[in-house]
Amino acid sequence: MAGLYVSTPHGGVLALDATTGKLLWQAPYNPAYVLLFAVNRGVGLGDGKVFIATQDCRILALDATTGKQVWNVQGCRDTSNSWYSMAAYVYKNQIIVGTGGGDNGTIGLVSSFSIQDGKRLWDWRSIPASGRARA
Q1: What is the three-class DSSP state of 103?
Q2: Alpha carbon 61 to chain centroid distance?
Q3: What is the C-alpha separation between 134 and 127, in angstroms, rounded?
Q4: 108 with 126: CB under 8 angstroms?
Q5: Which stretches does DSSP call E strand in 1-135?
Q6: What DSSP character marks residue 104?
Q7: 72-124 pLDDT tens trace
Q8: Measuring CA to CA, which residue among 96, 102, 112 is closest to residue 82?
Q9: How far is Cα 127 from Cα 107, in angstroms, rounded to an integer?
Q10: pTM of whole model > 0.85?
Q11: What sign for the dihedral angle of Cα 103, 106, 111, 117?
């Protein structure tokens, strides 16, 4: 049975049977706070997990078969004006995500996390703050 995974605006995930459309499981998510936009652009898949980056700056790993949460880590370094609205991009055993919030003055941050345990691997500032380096 092939699965189809859909993200919801506030960071929930639905798993559907790709042939019939039948709901296999759902993993609702209630963000700690909501900023300007209720949006999520998709999930990442890898290592038997579904990954989602949430509006309240969390990275979640869900078991792709059951929807049970495997791990949940803090993503954004600054949550005062940053959020995630992009799909979690999986590349070479990493989840790569970038913050939204440029219209609120965030400096922009791209981060990498391990698909195994969510450990932060690296950060890169796309627009460094005054007096700071990009990395």
Answers
A1: helix
A2: 9
A3: 7
A4: yes
A5: 3-7, 13-17, 23-27, 44-46, 49-53, 58-63, 69-74, 89-91, 94-98, 109-114, 120-125
A6: G
A7: 999 988 787 888 888 999 999 999 999 887 667 677 889 999 999 999 999 99
A8: 102
A9: 5
A10: yes
A11: negative
